[in-house]
C-alpha cells in the first residue's frame, strides 16, 4: 500500500486567531469536520478519529461535546433489527 502525505494551504483572516492559536484552530477545524462527516455517515468512528488526529475514545467524547450521537442507527432501524432476531 502506498502512503502519501499531502499538504494543503488554507488562507484565513488573522482575526480568526484572536480566540484560538493557529494550531488550536486547526485542531478544532479537523475535529469539527470529522464529527460532521461522521454525523452524515460518510466515515466510521475510527476514520473520523484518524482525521481528527485523536484516539477513538477521545472522538467519542468529542461527539458528546458536539451533541452528536455515537450511534449511526435510527431507533426504527434498531427495532427492525431486533425484530429480525
UniProtKB/TrEMBL annotation:
It comes from the Bacteria. InterPro entries: UPF0175, UPF0175_domain. Belongs to the UPF0175 family. This is Uncharacterized protein.
Amino acid at each position: 500500500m502506498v502512503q502519501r502525505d499531502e499538504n494543503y494551504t488554507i488562507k484565513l483572516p488573522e482575526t480568526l486567531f484572536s480566540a484560538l492559536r493557529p494550531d488550536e484552530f486547526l485542531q478544532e477545524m479537523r475535529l469539527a469536520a470529522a464529527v460532521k462527516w461522521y454525523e452524515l455517515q460518510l466515515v466510521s468512528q475510527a476514520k473520523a478519529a484518524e482525521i481528527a488526529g485523536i484516539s477513538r475514545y477521545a472522538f467519542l467524547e468529542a461527539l458528546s461535546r458536539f451533541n452528536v450521537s455515537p450511534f449511526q442507527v435510527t431507533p426504527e432501524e434498531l427495532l427492525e433489527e431486533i425484530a429480525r432476531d
